[in-house]
Amino acid sequence: MNQNISRRAFLRSSRNVAVGVGLGAALPNIFLNHTKAATGENPSELVRVGCIAVGNQGKSNMNAIIKNVVAVCDTDSKNLAGAKEIVEKKVPGRTCATYGDYRKMLESKDIDAVLISTPDHWHALASADACAAGKDVYCEKPLTLTIDEGKKLVEIARKTKRVFQTGSQQRSDPKFLMAAEYIRNGRLGKIKRVIVGLPGVNWTKDPGVPDGEPPADLNYDMWLGPAPFRPYNKHRVHYYFRFFWDYSGGQMTNWGAHHLDITQWALGMDASGPVEITAECKPDAQKRYEVPETFHITYKYADGTLVECYSGYNDKKMGCVFEGDKGSLHVTRGNISSTPETILEEPLKDADKRLYKSAKHHANWLECIKTRQAPICEVAIGHRSATVCHLGNIAVRTGKKVLWDPAMEMITNDADLAKMMS
Q1: 174-184 and 256-266 are packed helices; what angle lies between their axes, rounded to 10 degrees?
Q2: How far apart are CA 52 and CA 375, in angstroms?
């Protein structure tokens, strides 16, 4: 218990600086970034990036911008050593700095931006600290663990004028762009329903293990960070964190943050969202994890459009199926099709509405750091898409109908449900 109190004291100052009302006044001078790449004084200068968390998706993100990586940070020393080796091998002459605490990385004036691939429960705090330190941010989806974290993070990013990309990379995929543009230009007529298919829980096939001591290479206290203390268990960390409510929201915030993001985009709801959410689910009978084994969530939008989101149902197509009064369109990674086929055979006209086009998600972020323009999935968009996921999980966890006011960003029908925004 004393160790837990120490961890809390260790983290408290970081959270207070990041999310406190007096944000600007509280910043020490060491957090001010005056690098030329960040200020735009020399747009051709290399944008120097520090990667926070470099296992699994973090390693993939690091490799996507490997020429820009000058520092890496991880709570797992094996991940850290492996990432440093990759950077220095792929970028001749590069000496890659290493950190076990991202806040030390943020103190460096040799870093212009950070790419955050931590577990979800760290997203908001690490992003807020980075904004306060004058670093531009790429943060993996889902943007936050809770709705209120997202609202505050948008405020902080705006106040600090940071270029902030959310890692919903499907927006930079030409097939998803095509789907959104065809739908926004009325090729399907009025959209009546969207069916969103997500995978089921991909839990380990290994037998369960008891709680125990963390391995020597993992700083487990730092890994927990702002989450409640629990004894270490190898089936709660690294990839499996996403199936426990303290750290994530299951496949809803894992894959839902991709496909519901595309749904929001195609429906023209980037600054809005649904108004009513209901859910049914089946828990894991063996109680190996906390999120449901399967779920079916129904979102209703103000114009009557229904979004039916399924996880773990083998009869549902992965991705998004948009159903309109003129036909339907299915889009998923690597495939787009329509019924009838003629819907996609006719190209868009010059006068048709076009959406933000990004060829590569990471490159879009780096370019926007130089131009100071908003990237394709900037912080407010990432927050709104994550909100849809969080609302679905609130309905799943409580079994109650959720009424949502997307303009006020408030749950309006139940005070106890509203508490789950935080």
Answers
A1: 40
A2: 20
Measured distance CA(410)–CA(404) in Å, rounded: 6
Enumerate residue ranges in the chain where pLDDT < 70: 1-44
3-state SS of the chain is CHHHHHHHHHHHHHHHHHHCCCHHHHCCHHHCCCCHHHHCCCCCCCCCEEEECCCCHHHHHHHHCHHHEEEEECCEHHHHHHHHHHHHHHCCCCCCEEECCHHHHHCCCCCCEEEECCCHHHHHHHHHHHHHCCCEEEECCCCCCCHHHHHHHHHHHHHHCCCEEECCHHHHCHHHHHHHHHHHCCCCCCEEEEEEEECCCCCCCCCCCCCECCCCCECHHHHHCCCCCCCECCCCCHHHHHHCCCCCCHHHHHCHHHHHHHHHHHCCCCCCCCCEEEEEEECCCCCCCCCCCEEEEEEECCCCCEEEEEECCCCCCCEEEEEECCEEEEEECCEEEEECCHHHHCCCCCCCCCCCCCCCHHHHHHHHHHHCCCCCCEHHHHHHHHHHHHHHHHHHHHCCCEEEECCCCEECCCHHHHHCCC
pLDDT of residue 27: 35
Q: Give the burial class of 157: count Cβ atoms within 10 A of its Cβ; 0-12 exposed, 13-18 middle, 19 or more buried.
A: buried
How far apart CA 296 and CA 278 sit, in angstroms, is 9
Answer whether 328's CB lies under 8 Å from 182's CB: no
Can you read off the two tokens belonging to residue 28?
A: 């020490």
| Residue 375, both tokens | 């990237």
pLDDT for the residue numbered 45: 84
Distance separating alpha carbons of residues 233 and 211, to the nearest angstrom: 5
Give Cα separations from 276 to 38, 299, 392, 422 (angstroms): 41, 6, 10, 19
Query: What is the model's pLDDT at position 37?
Result: 53
Residue 350 tokens, joined: 């010059």
**pTM summary value:** 0.92
What is the CA 309 to chain-centroid distance, rounded?
18
Question: Residue 306 in contact with residue 299, Cβ under 8 Å?
Answer: yes
Q: How far apart are CA 137 and CA 143, in angstroms?
A: 11
298 in Cβ contact with 308 (< 8 Å)? yes
